[in-house]
Amino acid sequence: xxxxxxxxxxxxxxxxxxxxxxxxxxxxxxxxxxxxxxxxxxxxxxxxxxxxxxxxxxxxxxxxxxxxxxxxxxxxxxxxxxxxxxxxxxxxxxxxxxxxxxxxxxxxxxxxxxxxxxxxxxxxxxxxxxxxxxxxxxxxxxxxxxxxxxxxxxxxxxxxxxxxxxxxxxxxxxxxxxxxxxxxxxxxxxxxxxxxxxxxxxxxxxxxxxxxxxxxxxxxxxxxxxxxxxxxxxxxxxxxxxxxxxxxxxxxxxxxxxxxxxxxxxxxxxxxxxxxxxxxxxxxxxxxxxxxxxx
Length: 295
What we know:
With 295 residues, the protein is mostly helical.
């Protein structure tokens, strides 16, 4: 991180380094490297592209935390709690720009185009989520949002190496794998907001519901239990602590969690099916293990 050409941001580098050191799965560069090795992508370009993915993901986390006013990420204070909001926003902006520079350094115009498309999709998904609030409780609306907000970056992580290898047929199947991987990943993350502890996730449990963000478990519960007075109250804007706490417990203990798991598993199956187009071996096995580890 200290090698970034960002001298004016020296005071915030420590905060950024703590965020990176606090963990994270590094899934996007891992997917990129596995596909790249499997498809024999040019090594230097592959490394540059893979690095760009983690940097852009870090930028999205910074902006997400700023929008959500989140106090904690991965168990440590977020950038927006340690620095003014404008500083956090500009640091995220810089990381987006630096990630784009790394993607451009690959020298591949198709990669640059896909990378730009993914960035636009991520921003579009975030705007949709903010704009929708709880107005759109449909499954289709939710899937459209996470396809942009999350799956687009997973998709380009897998497609990029195929484009670097100039293998258009592989790019199509890699896109299917990455897109479905991203959908399953976001659904699993939304389930954890109801089922996991803050210690295991590094962020407060029930954070989405407390911010009025309606994710898949809530959508399934709201659809199946319209008679629940807490559902009616929440949707009408009454969101006191007692209502949110009861609703959180109702969703957590309901069939909505298993329904959400089932949809995630269907996306995982689609990812595994897409892998059948690639040669058997250690890299394909690694990709299959990764997607099956989501739930």
